[in-house]
């Protein structure tokens, strides 16, 4: 394999046998970075496609940076490709606070690729635009726009990475046994397993059959993935417009592992997926990919969640009618760096589901003009007024909301006279006798009294001897299951006494006449 390594004046990258070794701690364009846990730095990679050698698709392009308040520095990078011989174009970078115009590239990756870089102060968005496109003698088109966002997070983790400007030429790799481009990043050891995030930044994938394999390895923990611009075996594309930013996590990496190896390959043998030319040969569509950067984050010691033992069941929330009691436990050790999440911290179950019979009691009394309040039946006659009193006492430990009603007999007519008091204090009810009266917040041990008047209908509507029965009812807290009803006292409309006496006299006179005839 023939790889073209370019020593960049601003990069000072050391390349030994294809291995890239980070050696710098500064956040400087084109250099490697290494941040120790105490520095609390993380790197976010953002990217967007701009086009390819076949044309410009997006220019200018704006990338948005979330939470700029904890950003330390940002490296902006544009990769451009030469379409025909000519001079490289100018590139502008701009944010709401700064702007740069680069008339010459920051560096060269191959004969036909150039990259432009600028370092920005914290901001919320950066726009990149390639100028002079299509105007002689400038004959370059943009491929991709990337941001390397350095953040101060305070999280104790090890971060290392590098901007790498190299192309892997698929055509120069040995078919069926292509060697990868390899970068090795040293990481500190630890006393226990930890998770490691790895990121790849790659461009120049816009070709019908262009394919790239990425691989990350830390000890025996390995991740491998294949990306393509177009379709592979009828699978849809996963890369568009030249830009590929991939972040994956290697989980449970043993603490003794001292390095992360990252590989990129654009295998020429994959070109077998291309349709053959008329002579049966493969199309020349493997071409090259550009590796723009790597990033490695050691998330720190993997800590699993630890919880306490279950405590005792709480008291039931209700003495009857259905309550809930809860079992709880606490977090002893919070999870960190990809550790196992905490299980449920509470469980609940139903309790005291028996019906509440006496927690809200209802009593009904009645009186006429000639009687006192009583729970006993009364004899009433046509047109006579009857006063009813509903007395509701709350023996719950908390206040309740009530809906109270009285199912009046069809033999009486409601005539008003409504009053309501709570422990002797006048209150206002919502609603009416027909739909029910509502009252909110009857406190513990408080008594609500409701009085109203009815009149017995006339004798054309009520036959003598009729029994008048009403039923009072209550719904508690809107729950139909918590329903209390009491059969109300029966009132009787008796036969008139005059009719009874007339009957006795008539019967006695007839008997006397019979006796006289028999003599």
TrEMBL record:
<keyword id="KW-0325">Glycoprotein</keyword>
<dbReference type="Pfam" id="PF19028">
    <property type="entry name" value="TSP1_spondin"/>
</dbReference>
<dbReference type="InterPro" id="IPR036383">
    <property type="entry name" value="TSP1_rpt_sf"/>
</dbReference>
<protein>
    <recommendedName>
        <fullName>PEP-CTERM protein-sorting domain-containing protein</fullName>
    </recommendedName>
</protein>
<dbReference type="InterPro" id="IPR039942">
    <property type="entry name" value="SBSPO"/>
</dbReference>
<feature type="transmembrane region" description="Helical">
    <location>
        <begin position="496"/>
        <end position="513"/>
    </location>
</feature>
<keyword id="KW-1015">Disulfide bond</keyword>
<keyword id="KW-0732">Signal</keyword>
<keyword id="KW-0472">Membrane</keyword>
<dbReference type="InterPro" id="IPR044004">
    <property type="entry name" value="TSP1_spondin_dom"/>
</dbReference>
<dbReference type="InterPro" id="IPR013424">
    <property type="entry name" value="Ice-binding_C"/>
</dbReference>
<keyword id="KW-1133">Transmembrane helix</keyword>
<dbReference type="Pfam" id="PF07589">
    <property type="entry name" value="PEP-CTERM"/>
</dbReference>
<feature type="domain" description="Ice-binding protein C-terminal">
    <location>
        <begin position="493"/>
        <end position="515"/>
    </location>
</feature>
<feature type="domain" description="Spondin-like TSP1">
    <location>
        <begin position="305"/>
        <end position="356"/>
    </location>
</feature>
<dbReference type="InterPro" id="IPR000884">
    <property type="entry name" value="TSP1_rpt"/>
</dbReference>
<feature type="signal peptide">
    <location>
        <begin position="1"/>
        <end position="22"/>
    </location>
</feature>
<keyword id="KW-0812">Transmembrane</keyword>
């Amino acid at each position: 394999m023939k790889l073209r390594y370019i020593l960049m004046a601003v990069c000072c990258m050391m390349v030994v046998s294809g291995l890239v070794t980070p050696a710098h701690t500064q956040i400087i364009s084109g250099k490697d970075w290494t941040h120790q846990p105490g520095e609390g730095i993380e790197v976010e990679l953002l990217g967007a496609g701009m086009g390819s050698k076949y044309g410009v698709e997006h220019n200018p392009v704006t990338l948005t940076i979330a939470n700029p308040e904890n950003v330390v520095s940002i490296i902006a990078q544009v990769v451009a490709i030469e379409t025909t011989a000519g001079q490289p174009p100018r590139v502008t970078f701009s944010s709401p606070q700064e702007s740069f115009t680069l008339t010459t590239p920051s560096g060269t990756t191959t004969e036909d690729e150039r990259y432009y870089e600028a370092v920005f102060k914290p901001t919320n968005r950066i726009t990149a635009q390639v100028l002079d496109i299509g105007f002689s003698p400038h004959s370059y088109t943009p491929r991709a726009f990337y941001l390397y966002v350095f953040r101060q997070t305070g999280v104790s983790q090890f971060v290392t990475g590098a901007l790498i400007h190299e192309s892997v030429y698929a055509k120069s790799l040995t078919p069926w046994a292509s060697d990868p481009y390899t970068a090795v990043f040293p990481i500190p050891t630890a006393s226990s397993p930890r998770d490691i995030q790895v990121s790849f930044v790659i461009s120049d994938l816009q070709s019908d059959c262009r394919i790239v394999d990425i691989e990350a390895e830390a000890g025996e923990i390995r991740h491998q993935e294949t990306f393509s611009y177009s379709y592979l075996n009828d699978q849809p594309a996963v890369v568009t417009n030249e830009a590929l930013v991939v972040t994956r996590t290697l989980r449970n990496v043993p603490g003794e592992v001292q390095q992360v190896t990252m590989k990129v390959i654009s295998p020429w043998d994959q070109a077998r997926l291309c349709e053959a030319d008329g002579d049966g040969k493969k199309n020349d569509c493997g071409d090259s990919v550009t590796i723009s950067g790597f990033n490695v984050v050691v998330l720190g010691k993997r800590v699993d969640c630890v919880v306490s033992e279950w405590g005792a069941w709480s008291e039931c929330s209700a003495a009857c009618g259905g309550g809930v009691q809860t079992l709880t436990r606490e977090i002893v050790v919070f999870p960190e760096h990809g550790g196992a999440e905490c299980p449920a911290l509470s469980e609940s179950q139903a309790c005291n589901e028996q019906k509440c019979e006496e927690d809200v009691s209802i009593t009904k009394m009645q009186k006429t003009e000639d009687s006192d309040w009583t729970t006993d039946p009364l004899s009433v006659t046509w047109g006579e007024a009857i006063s009813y009193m509903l007395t509701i006492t709350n023996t719950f430990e908390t206040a309740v909301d009530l809906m109270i009603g009285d199912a009046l007999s069809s033999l009486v007519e409601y005539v008003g006279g409504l009053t309501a008091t709570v422990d002797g204090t006048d209150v206002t009810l919502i609603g009416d006798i027909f739909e029910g009266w509502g009252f909110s917040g009857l406190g513990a041990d408080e008594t609500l009294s409701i009085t109203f008047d009815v009149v017995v209908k006339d004798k054309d509507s009520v036959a003598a001897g009729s029994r008048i029965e009403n039923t009072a009812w209550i719904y508690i807290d809107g729950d139909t299951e918590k329903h209390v009803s009491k059969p109300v006292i029966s009132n009787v409309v008796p036969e008139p006494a005059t009719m009874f006496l007339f009957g006795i006299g008539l019967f006695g006179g007839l008997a006397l006449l019979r006796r006289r005839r028999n003599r």
